[in-house]
Structure prediction request, 214 residues.
Amino acid sequence: MPAKFITLEGIEGSGKSTLLQKMADWLAGRGHSVLLTCEPGGSALGRELRPLLLDADREKVCMEAELFLYLADRAEHARRVIIPALERGELVLCDRFTDSTLAYQGYGRGLDLDLLRRLNHAATGGLAPDQTLVLDLPPEMGLSRARRRNLEQGLERKEGRFEAESLAFHSRVRTGYLSIAEEESGRVKVLDASGGPEELFSQACKHFPREMEL
Prediction:
């Protein structure tokens, strides 16, 4: 049975959005029906919450409020978007999911990991990815890429809240992702994201099940 729900994770600037589009195009070209989505912002509610979470000019909320905003986004996203797509037999490719909460709010912010796992389970109804690719690179490289991208796209304030966090914060997030990959090596695979998009896509293709090559 091929993976139906695939998530991409990683620190800022790791190349998730570019890789997801390449994956979606590759899979669609082989006859698969593909839903490409993201967090935060994959549902109507999520699109309203996204500015609250990412806009650097808004007053920063406490980490507990941040957590519950992400969980609200995820609960709606899972039930309104992801689960219906899976029930229709579509492949779902998602930019961030439950592992982001563990990495950012857990390892990054210092919230209790066991509590976060329970809250993730409640928010999703137990929905979990079949496969997760973690795009790994040094945080200073990722932040440089992300800040340059935001500047080029005029998003340095609108979506720059996490890019404004310290290097130490992003180093903790990276450690979190690598720890998750070590704990769940069957589901989570780590890709070297320090190279270019084509090199990264080539790595990702090695983890596609043969059944996807229709």
